[in-house]
Amino acid sequence: MNLPNKLSLLRIILIPVTMLFMMPISIYGFEPEGWNQFIANYGLFIAGIVFIVASFTDFLDGQIARRCHMITDLGKFLDSLADKMLVIAVLIAFVATGRVSAWLLAIIVLREFMVTGIRLIASKNGVVMAAKMIGKIKTTTQMIAIIYLMFEPTLMRLTGDNYAESLKTPCAISVIGDICFYISVIMTIISGMDYLLKNLSYFKEDNVSKAGA
Q: Which of 137, 146, 207, 209 has the fewest other C-beta atoms within 10 Å?
């Protein structure tokens, strides 16, 4: 396995580490008070640092793969998979803590299912689809929005706002976070429609029958 693929795997490994600092522990009544208080105060800040490191591996593996001619079908698959797993896992944690709407997460997840389905159909026709530029832009807007949301509590402490209260009554900092996230959702929809419209040929009966032959 080459270095870019190892970096993609590292991004996947960092997912549970990121989530560990995003949500308090509650397992059948077991709730370590000291740890959960630490998470409430500093968890998202640490998760933000880990997420930035994970996001940087996305940039790094692509640069290395292109410059060192290490682009492989496995690399294309792992790069896309790692991006999707990282973003969706973190957003699930934000839904669990009440910061992100489940409806918006559903839009993102359904888009990923649709694109993955298109990739599967294409692969049966011998085509391995690498991430397109509009998909990269979508991922970038998602990661920017997520990083901002992770550092919201820190920004609010600096301005004197209360993070828990902002979940009920928005403040300027949380409104900016909402706008960043809405932009990422819009880009998710646009990129999903772009994938669908540009690959409608894979849904024709002759292509499907050839794929299943």
A: 209
Which residues, including other chains, have CB under 8 Å from residue 29's CB and lie 6 or more apart?
Answer: none
What gap in Å lies between CA 45 and CA 163, rounded to an integer? 13
Of 68 and 105, which is predicted with more confidence? 105
The model scores a pTM over 0.90 = no
**Dist CA 211 CA 181 (whole Å):** 38
- Which residues are bridge partners to 108 per DSSP? none
Phi, psi (degrees; rounded to nearest 5) at 28: 50, 45
Q: Express each pLDDT in 84-95 by its tens digit.
A: 899 999 999 999
Residue 122, sorted as left (phi over 0), alpha (psi -120 to 50) or beta, turns out to be: alpha
Rounded Cα gap, residues 117 and 97, in angstroms: 30
Q: How far is CA 166 from the centre of its chain?
A: 23
pLDDT digits (tens, 9 = 90+) for 29-75: 889 999 999 999 999 999 999 999 999 998 888 888 888 888 887 88
Structural domains in the chain? 3-212 (1.20.120)
What amino acid is encoded at 83 in this protein? Answer: D
Q: Tell me the C-alpha distance between 80 and 78, whole Å.
A: 6
Nearest Cα residue to 119 out of 73, 88, 57: 73
> What local confidence, expressed as pLDDT, does residue 170 receive?
86
